[in-house]
Amino acid sequence: MRSRGFTLIELLVVIAIIAILAAILFPVFARAREKARQTSCLNNIKQLATAAMMYSQDYDEKVLPSYLFGYWWTSMLQPYIKNTNIYICPSKDSSSPSYGHNHCNLGYNSTVSMASVDKPAETVIFNDNGFVTNPTADPKTWTESGGGAPYTRWPNNTPYWDTDPWRPVPRHNGMCNCAFLDGHGKAMTMDVLVRPTAGAADCLYDIY
């Protein structure tokens, strides 16, 4: 007895079902991959925060500055981490630093004492950082371009906030990884990061 094969219509139906499932599942898989990269990135940035705390212990409780005596913070942390790959976010295809230091607020060619920071656990030291190509758009829609820079501008870094828009970026499914002065790390929304004004109780970038 001859076995009955598939008809052309049946094959087309199966192919259509597979195509529909692929269209549904591919974005899910992409988000899952990005979530894994976000976790790896958060681990990087927490290690940088731990190294920055070690730096402070060695330098009379001074906060790691972004730049001092001709050296960027990336060079100042090398004795503590001895690994340049940690400066690169897994979601970035670049050899330049993917993380920015809280530039003018935590010291540029100067230092800030830990005692002068009112809320270390609520003050960002490092964050996902990129050159924003649409700086006047809603922060949730900011897109980044190119490599990286070791510093981050914040709204109170005028006029450079507008003229040199290296800013926090929503690199990981709309979230920005941040590390704080007490060493902990957390993924933050853009509204929480940049909406509060300097001096406000919920501001995460100024020190007072």
Estimated structural class: alpha+beta
Beta-strand proportion: 15-25%
- Mean pLDDT over the residues: 91
H-E string:
HEEEHHEEEEEHEEEH
State the distance separating the first and last CA atoms. 86 Å
Question: Strand tally, please?
Answer: 11
Helix content: 25-40%
Treating each run of at least 4 consecutive H or I residues as one helix, how many helices?
Answer: 5
Give start-end ranges of low-pLDDT stretches.
Answer: none
| 3D shape | elongated
* Major beta-sheet overview: 7 strands, mixed
Rg over CA atoms:
22 Å
Question: What can you see in these coordinates?
Answer:
The structure is a single chain. The chain is an alpha+beta fold and 208 residues long. The chain is 33% helix and 18% strand. The chain is built from 5 helices and 11 strands; from the N terminus they run αβββααβββββαβββα. The protein has helices spanning 8-58, 73-76, 78-81, 160-163, 190-194; strands at 62-63, 67-68, 71-72, 99-102, 112-113, 124-132, 144-145, 151-152, 166-168, 176-180, 185-188. β2 and β3 form a beta hairpin.
Keywords:
single chain, 208 residues, alpha+beta, two-stranded antiparallel sheet, 5 helices, elongated
Task: Describe the protein's topology.
Elements: H1 8-58, E1 62-63, E2 67-68, E3 71-72, H2 73-76, H3 78-81, E4 99-102, E5 112-113, E6 124-132, E7 144-145, E8 151-152, H4 160-163, E9 166-168, E10 176-180, E11 185-188, H5 190-194
Parallel strand pairs: 4-8
Antiparallel strand pairs: 1-5, 2-3, 4-6, 6-7, 6-9, 6-10, 10-11
